[in-house]
Amino acid sequence: MAKLIRRTSKAAGLPPGTLIHIGKKKIEKPRIKIMNYDESNCEEREIENVKECYDFRDTGGVTWINLDGIHQINILEQIGNCFGLHPLVMEDILNTEQRPKIDDLGNYIFIVSKMLYFDRANHIESEQVSLILGRKFVISFQEREGDVFNSIRERISKGKGRIRKMGPDYLAYSLLDAVVDHYFVMLENLGSKIEEIEDELVSNPTTETMNRIHKLKRQIILLRKSIWPLREVIGIMEREQSQLIQESTLIYLRDIHDHIIRVIDTIETYREMLSGMVDIYLSSISNKMNQVMRVLTIISTVFIPLTFIAGIYGMNFKYMPELEWQFSYPLILASMLIAGSLMLYYFRRKNWL
């Protein structure tokens, strides 16, 4: 683990031992929650000393260790030493810019997924959730406190469902399922935003509408980058015949796989809708411009003969007989009015107005 710290620090040009943490706001003090359960009993506690994890290493039942906050390297090092985690795995846990992936290292399986949520500015933020699935334990690493796993803790503590009757592979499935189910909440929110933009495009599209469309497209791209690789992760868990995953759990993994496909299909639909909205916006702006140009063209066309008449009688030649007539001025005005009215009538008959 010390080699990991030195190597990562050196690669970034920092002093040896410097912790590099890429991701969200750090938790001041990491929290470690442990649940140990079987079909008849359940023990839950929050520990202060990482060495207490050693007490759960060889206990009966299933042990779930959840770490909120991964910026203290000494805590990660102790957990890694306790459960025999490879330094490269710990490096991937520290580097929170990993894409979803899975590594089967024999004694345990390392899984990386992305938990997505909206921040206070209503922008999508991504948090890395790393899982270690062992023979009798599951370790989850999160960047920050507050997650979608509270419902799973409640199910375990109250004995709801089949989770306490199953092994650690079912617990890992439940954690992944909670992450994937939260994607539907994100999509529902995005769907509401897209509907609002659609109404705005029909009623009164503005430059701000186009900005909102581009922001949504960037959020959809982030969703796609975070979710698409997870489909392959679940597919590998289904196909690979690992001793850590029971055959009875495979059907639940297929259910997650189906959910991810639904999420991806919805994302692709939203992408197409947003691309279509860009075309609608451009068409709407073009139509507005055409309407303005049509009005201006009609006005210009109406005034061309009037300007021609005014130009002729504005030359002030000495021998222009009309200049001496008593009714020449009202006659010219009447001629201009009649010419303009006839042109407007013609434009209306042609549905140009």
Summarize the structure.
By secondary structure, the chain is an alpha+beta fold. The protein contains 8 helices and 7 strands, in the order H-E-E-E-H-H-E-E-E-E-H-H-H-H-H.
Overview features:
7 strands, Methane Monooxygenase Hydroxylase, Chain G, domain 1, 353 residues, disordered N terminus, seven-stranded mixed sheet, 14% strand, rod-shaped, alpha+beta, Beta Polymerase, domain 2
Descriptive notes:
- By secondary structure, the protein is an alpha+beta fold.
- It has 2 domains: 2-283, 2-Layer Sandwich (Beta Polymerase, domain 2); 292-349, Up-down Bundle (Methane Monooxygenase Hydroxylase, Chain G, domain 1).
- The protein has helices at residues 2-11, 73-83, 87-94, 150-158, 168-203, 207-239, 247-312, 328-349, and strands at residues 31-37, 42-47, 62-68, 101-104, 109-118, 124-133, 137-142.
- Strands 2-1-3-7-6-5-4 form a 7-stranded mixed β-sheet.
- β4 (101-104) and β5 form a beta hairpin.
- The radius of gyration is 35 Å and the shape is rod-shaped.
User: What is the mean pLDDT?
Assistant: 82
Largest sheet: 7 strands, mixed
Q: Got a strand count?
A: 7
Strands in their spatial order, largest beta sheet: 2-1-3-7-6-5-4
Topology, pairings included?
Blueprint: H1 2-11, E1 31-37, E2 42-47, E3 62-68, H2 73-83, H3 87-94, E4 101-104, E5 109-118, E6 124-133, E7 137-142, H4 150-158, H5 168-203, H6 207-239, H7 247-312, H8 328-349
Parallel strand pairs: 3-7
Antiparallel strand pairs: 1-2, 1-3, 4-5, 5-6, 6-7
